[in-house]
């Protein structure tokens, strides 16, 4: 809406300043999607007199994106959400909760020093104890900026629940029935930049249940059910259990990975899972702790993955390889399994 300014005794209608905004967020991730929604609302709250033109970009960990290119931070306002930090003078906002969001303690300390020296031109919010980036943004919005958006509370709850795997059983999450989980499934498969550009604005206007039940999401979700059935069958067929570590090598399998809790549906008593997958763009070695096993976690998975060039959280992480590095990926898988088997 245009703003009304008074000049002398005359009033004139002036258009608000147009501001380009680049939002770089974790792609193919429900938490990354919701984080973009919350940040967009927050920025509009902080700058109500400006007209923001948002561009959303999906960021994925892997050999094709070892660091964020400088050109991606070329807007008037640039934000990185739920993704690895990069030092850049154009960075305006940073929100993340991954333990490995910074490559080192020194990088984190340097970033903090740059924030202090930037005279308010850059803000950094990092809390690896937070269970989701969406929850972190909601908390910071309330505590630091006095902005509480009740209309997004349900969306934040679901993002936090999905990212923290807070379900009664792996079956509840894998066999998604609720609209929010259906949407989360679709995002995991289809959440590229074009998807974010389309659905982030929609989720600012409609509830997560409305979007999850929409014809557009239903059309994308339907093929995923068959893919999840095939994926679960392959895990059961190819997987083995060593002590209490489920090991699944699907690096040479031509199937669509679908449903990140499938290993715990197939092997409910395992303490950890290590699965090597072939995606369209890369090989992905996923490592996770099974929260439904009834067993205590003995290892920090983020630390294990970081040693091998990956990252993540204390309970889940990943390491990515180019397709041609399959031998290296399998050797890494064996090292990770050996580490998890050690006391």
User: What is the ordering of alpha helices and beta strands?
Assistant: EEEHEEEHEHHHHHHHEEHEEHEEH
Low-confidence stretches: 1-13
Gyration radius over CA: 21 Å
CATH topology value of the largest domain: inorganic pyrophosphatase (n-terminal core)
The CATH C-level name of the largest domain is Alpha Beta
Strand content: 15-25%
Number of domains: 2
**Would you tell me the structural class of the helices and strands?**
alpha/beta
Q: Number of helical runs? A: 12
Biggest β-sheet strands, sense, barrel: 6 strands, mixed
What does the overall shape look like?
globular
Distance between the termini: 62 Å
Strand order of the largest sheet: 8-9-10-11-13-12
Task: Describe this protein's structure.
With 343 residues, the protein is α/β, with parallel strands linked by helices. It has helices spanning 30-46, 105-117, 133-145, 153-163, 170-174, 179-190, 193-205, 208-212, 215-238, 262-266, 301-307, 326-341; strands at 3-7, 10-14, 17-26, 50-59, 77-81, 93-96, 123-126, 240-242, 245-250, 272-278, 283-289, 311-312, 316-321. Strands 8-9-10-11-13-12 form a six-stranded mixed β-sheet, with helices on both faces. Strands 4-3-5-6-7 form a five-stranded parallel β-sheet, with helices on both faces. Strands 1-2 form a two-stranded antiparallel sheet.
């Amino acid at each position: 809406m245009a703003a009304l300014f008074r000049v002398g005794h005359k009033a004139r209608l002036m258009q608000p300043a147009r501001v380009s905004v680049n939002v770089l967020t974790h792609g193919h991730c429900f938490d990354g999607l919701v984080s973009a929604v919350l940040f967009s609302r927050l920025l509009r709250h902080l700058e109500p007199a400006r007209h923001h033109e948002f561009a959303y970009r999906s960021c994925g960990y892997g050999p094709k994106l070892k660091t964020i290119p400088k050109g991606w931070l070329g807007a008037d306002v640039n934000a990185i959400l739920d993704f690895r930090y990069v030092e850049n003078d154009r960075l305006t906002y940073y929100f993340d909760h991954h333990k490995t969001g910074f490559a080192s303690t020194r990088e984190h300390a340097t970033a903090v020093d740059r924030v202090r020296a930037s005279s308010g031109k850059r803000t950094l919010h990092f809390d690896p104890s937070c269970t989701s980036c969406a929850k972190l943004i909601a908390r910071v919005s309330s505590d630091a900026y006095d902005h509480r958006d009740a209309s997004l509370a349900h969306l934040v709850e679901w993002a936090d629940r999905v990212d923290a795997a807070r379900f009664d059983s792996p079956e509840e999450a894998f066999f998604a029935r609720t609209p929010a989980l259906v949407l989360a499934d679709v995002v995991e498969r289809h959440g590229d930049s074009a998807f974010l550009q389309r659905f982030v604005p929609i989720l600012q206007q409609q509830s997560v249940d409305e979007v999850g039940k929409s014809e557009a999401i239903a059309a994308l979700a339907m093929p995923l059910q068959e893919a999840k059935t095939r994926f679960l069958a392959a895990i059961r067929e190819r997987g083995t259990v060593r002590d209490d570590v489920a090991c699944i090598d699907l690096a040479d399998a031509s199937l669509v990975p679908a449903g990140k809790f499938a290993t715990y549906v197939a092997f409910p008593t395992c303490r950890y899972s290590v699965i090597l997958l072939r995606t369209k763009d890369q090989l992905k070695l996923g490592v996770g702790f099974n929260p439904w096993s009834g067993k205590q976690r003995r290892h920090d998975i983020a630390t294990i993955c970081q040693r091998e060039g990956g990252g993540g959280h204390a309970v889940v992480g990943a390491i990515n390889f180019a397709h041609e590095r399959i031998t290296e990926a399998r050797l890494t898988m064996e090292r990770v399994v050996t580490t998890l088997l050690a006391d």
